[in-house]
Amino acid sequence: MTKFLEFERPIADLEGKIEELRHLANTGDLNIAEEVSRLQTKADRLLRQAYGNLTPWQKVQVARHPDRPKFFDYLDTLVENFIPLSGDRVFAEDCAIIGGLGLFMDQPVVVIGQQKGHDTETRIKHNFGMAKPEGYRKAKRLMELADQFKLPVISFVDTAGAYPGIEAEERGQAEAIAKCIETCLKIKVPLISLVIGEGGSGGAIAIAAANAVLMLEHSIYSVISPEGCASILWRSASKAAEAAEAQRLTAQDLLKLGIIDKIIPEPVGGAHRFKSDMAKQVKEEIGKTLRPLLNLDGDKLLSLRREKFINMGSKTL
For residue 221, how far is the Cα from the chain centroid? Predict the structure, then answer.
C-alpha cells in the first residue's frame, strides 16, 4: 500500500474513496465502473499537478520517502553476477556502503552504493545509510581495485550524511572521507555517480567526485540537511522549508549551476510508485553515459574529471 506524504493528502482521500467503491463492487451487484473511472481520472490529474510543481521542501520529502527505491533495488536490476567485497582491511566491515564486482550490460564493473534499508531491521543493520570511516576506506579500496584492473566504477548515492557519532570521529571520519574523494580524483577509469535519494554533505561527495554525476528528478544533493541548515541560521529546525529553498538542493537547480550533468526523469508520482520502471530507466541512462567514457584513455578521463570540479562555482542562477 502506498504511503502518502502530507502534500498528497487530497490524492490519498480520492484513492481511499476509489478503494471503498471497488470493495463495494466486489461484495454486491453494484456497477460503479463509471464513478471509479471519474475519481481515478481526478486523482491522476491531482498527482500530475502536485508533482509538476513541487517546492524544494516537498522534493526533500519525496527523496526521503520510506518506499523510495534503495540501492539494492537498482542493484538487482542493473548488475548481473554481483560479488560483494567486504571490509576495509583496517578495522571492520561497514554495511552502510556496499560494494563489489559485477556485470553491467555485459561490461565488468565495480559497483559501490549507500544502502539505507527498507524496514526497521535493515535500517539498523545498514545504519540508515550513514557510513563510518571503515565504509569510506572500503569504497577507497574498491576504487583502487577498479583502477588496477581497468574497470569502470558506478556509485549510487543515498545518505543523509556520514555517521556523526563519537566512535566515527575517533577512527578518523574526516580523513577517511578526504582520502575517498582524493581517490575519486586519482583513478584513471570511468567513474559515474547517481544520486537516487539524498545526497548529504561529505558522506555523498566521498563517492560522487565523478566524470558524470546524474540525479533522479526528485532527489536532493546538498552540503547539509535543511534541518541542520535551519538550526544554524535560524536556531530552529522548524525553518527547514525556508532552508531548502535557499540551499538550491534540487536536481533542477544543481543542473543549472553545473554541479551535476544530467537529470533522470521519474514516473509521475515519484520513483517509489513504479520501482521497476525507474530501475530500467536508470539502467538505460547509465549505459548512455558510460559508453562514450569507455572510449577515452585514463589520462583524458582524469583530466576531464579534475577540470569538471575545478570549474564548479563559475555558473550562477
Answer: 9
In the predicted model, residues of the chain with pLDDT beneath 50 are: none
Strand-pair category, 212-216 with 153-159: unpaired
Give the pLDDT confidence score for residue 11 in this predicted structure: 84
- Per-residue pLDDT at 33: 73
192 is in which domain, residue-wise? Answer: 60-310
Q: Are residues 67 and 16 in the same domain?
A: no
Residue 148: per-residue pLDDT: 97
- One domain, residues 187 and 305: yes
Alpha carbons 99 and 156: distance in angstroms, whole number? 10
Please give the DSSP secondary-structure letter assigned to residue 155.
E
Q: Which three cell numbers stand for residue 284?
A: 538505460
Residue with cell 576506506: 137
Handedness of CA 42, 5, 119, 284 (dihedral sign): positive
Query: CA-CA distance, 131 to 203, in Å (whole number)?
Result: 7
**Are 69 and 28 contained in the same domain?**
no
In a domain, 1, yes or no: no
Residues 138 and 240 in one domain: yes
**Contact at 8 Å (CB) between 279 and 104?**
no
| Residue 180 pLDDT | 96
